[in-house]
Every structure is written in structure tokens, then in C-alpha cells.
Amino acid sequence: MRYYTNVKDLGDLNLALAEASEIKKDRYKFEALGKHNTCLLIFFNNSLRTRLSTQKAARNLGMDVIVLDVNQGAWKLETERGVIMDGDKSEHLLEAIPVMASYCDIIGVRSFAGLTNRDDDYTEKVLTEFIKYSGKPVFSMEAATGHPLQAFADLITIEEYKRKDRPKVVLTWAPHPRALPQAVPNSFSDFMNEADVDFVITHPHGYELDEKFVRGANVEYDQMKAFQGADFIYAKNWSCPGVTTPEDYGKILSKDMSWTVDTAHMAATNDAFFMHCLPVRRNMIVSDDVIEAPTSLVIPEAANREISATVVLKRMLEAL
Ligand code: AN0
Ligand code: CP
């Protein structure tokens, strides 16, 4: 695998899940694979889980790891071509990318959506530049429109905890005080559409996700109706994707607290497991009771980020 930016890069999901299970049994099984190979992780945004789990994954495979926080200690980067650089940005991404690439064999990039220009975000402008100008294999650590390492970890978690062959999985929007990207719900939908699950998406009007990711999945605007009989509830906030109202792209359209996942919501489900990618704001997205219940999977889900990253890096090393 040369690039990892969406579900299709993984190919057959059952094979990917089998590989994940093999690695989980012995996460150092392939530690000879990465010897004398360097993984560079570039963060344009904050991270706890991705930063730690991806480093751990690279080390499981015997790789060296370099981490760069672009906004802390590096030169401020210009990303637009043609700009007269007389402001506060000292270096252009078009030089920075090949320079960074010269020190490593595989590059991970975290670069969130700007949420102002839908075209820039949905064409994955920054991630695409890394793919184009680095000459190295590149994987997404959450880019503008996707977070495929998270969605793969989510799928692994569902596979581990499911109590029936084809569980009902519900992706629900929930309120949040700040405008967040659509990357997590986009990738989760992308993966669930390929997985053997009964998938339902629920959100208030105006929050319709891009069809590229929804791909005809069942959308139910009545949250309580969507929750009925659910085996997994996957909560996430996202800002307006601008599908039905392009002028609202990236905006907060609702802070309706009746969408917060609490025990009354969970009572409508089939004793569902609760999932969230974290970080989560308690009592905005989910009540204390629900996130602390034995049915909450947020910690094993985060732990599986090490596994999803190990599978992806293993496949990238094999293709070097
Ligand atoms: C980010 C998001 O919603 O995309 C990262 C989630 C993994 N969340 C925040 O910025 C709070
Ligand atoms: N879930 C996730 O990607 O978390 P971080 O933003 O902390 O990496």
C-alpha cells in the first residue's frame, strides 16, 4: 500500500480485520520489517491518540520515528502558490515537503479542514500536495475530509464486540460548542458502508454528509427512531457540510441539547454499546452515565488505534 487516505486503500476488509487480529495477538510479530526505516509524523493540529498510537505502531514494526508539530517550533508555512511572502510565513510548503521527505521513508500527515473553503477541503488540498511533492508513501492521520485510521480502529472494535452477525450501527450527530470537521463521520460512513452492518445515520436537517461518503446509506432525521434496536451508537459532532446549503459550509447550525446521548436515548436501543473517537465533551455529546457505563467502548476503541496503525504501516513497509 503506497497511500492510505480512505477505505478503498485497505482492499478486502475481512482480510484487513484478520490482519488486525493477528497483530493484536502479537504486536511485535513484524518488528524486523521496519529496521532502518523512518516514519515522519507531521501535525498541523493537536492530537493525543493519533500522536501516541501511531508512534507506538511504528515502533512495533521496528521503525525510527520523527514527530514534527508544524505550529510549535517550525517556520510558519505558506500553502498558497503565487503569494508574495511578505507576511509572517517564512517558508513555503512546496520547499518544506521535499525537505521533510528527504529525512524519512513514510510520512503521516494531520491537517484538519479549514472549514472556510469547501473546495479546498473536499479536494484535500494539503494532503494531495504531500502526495504530489514528497515522492514518499503518505498516510492520513486525519486530513480535511477523512480520518481512516480512526474508522479502521472503529471497525476492529465493532468486530470484537458485536453480538450478532449483522449488527445495527447508528451514527448520530450530537451538539458541540465549536465548529468541527466532517472527517470522522465521513470516514466512519465510508467504512460502515463497506462493512457487514445495518447502517443508519441520524442528524438534524442541514447536517447532510457528502454523498461520496453516505453512498445511499439510510438517513433518519428522528434520532429516537434511529436508535430503536441499535447495537452500536457512534456519536460525533460535525459542522455543516454545505451539501444542502453551500453558504453554511463549516458553520454551527444547531446546539440542540436534546441530541446529547443520555440514558433515555440508550434505553431505546438493543442495550447498545456507546462509541466515540475522543476527545469528547461530556454532557454536550454524551452524558457522564453513558460514557461511564460498562457498555461504553471509548477506551478499547482508542486502544485499537495502535492496531489499525500497525496494520497500515506494515502494509506500507511491505510495499516500499
Ligand atoms: C477533531 C474532529 O472533530 O475532527 C478530532 C477528532 C479526532 N476534534 C476536535 O477538534 C475536538
Ligand atoms: N481520535 C483521535 O484521532 O484523537 P486525537 O485527535 O487525540 O489524535
Write up this protein.
With 320 residues, this protein is of the alpha/beta class. It folds into two domains: 3-146 and 305-318, Rossmann fold (3-Layer(aba) Sandwich), CATH 3.40.50.1370; 149-301, Aspartate/ornithine carbamoyltransferase (Rossmann fold, 3-Layer(aba) Sandwich), CATH 3.40.50.1370. Helices cover 36% and strands 15% of the residues. The protein has a five-stranded parallel sheet, with helices on both faces. Helix 10 (263-267) links the parallel strand 11 (232-236) and strand 12. Helix 2 packs across helix 12 and helix 6 crosses helix 12 (298-318). The mean pLDDT is 97.
Write the layout of secondary structure elements.
Blueprint: E1 3-4, H1 13-25, E2 38-43, H2 49-60, E3 64-69, E4 77-78, E5 91-92, H3 93-101, E6 106-110, H4 118-122, H5 125-134, E7 138-140, H6 148-161, E8 168-173, H7 183-194, E9 198-202, H8 211-214, E10 218-219, H9 223-227, E11 232-236, H10 263-267, E12 273-275, H11 288-292, H12 298-318
Helix pairs in contact: 1-12, 2-12, 3-5, 6-7, 6-12
Bound molecules: N-acetyl-L-norvaline and phosphoric acid mono(formamide)ester.
Phosphoric acid mono(formamide)ester (CP) is lined by residues 47-51, 142, 150, 277-279.
Identify the overall geometry: globular
Q: What helical percentage do the residues reach?
A: 25-40%
Question: Total helix count?
Answer: 12
> What's the Cα radius of gyration?
20 Å
- The residue ranges in which pLDDT falls below 50 over 5 or more consecutive positions are none
**CATH third-level topology of the largest domain:** Rossmann fold
Q: Please, what is the CATH homologous superfamily of the largest domain? A: Aspartate/ornithine carbamoyltransferase
**Structural class of the secondary structure composition?**
alpha/beta
Overall mean pLDDT stands at 97
* CATH-level-2 architecture of the largest domain: 3-Layer(aba) Sandwich
- What distance lies between the first and last C-alpha atoms, to the nearest angstrom? 8 Å
Strand order of the largest sheet: 1-7-6-2-3
Total discrete domains: 2
Q: What CATH first level of the largest domain would be assigned?
A: Alpha Beta
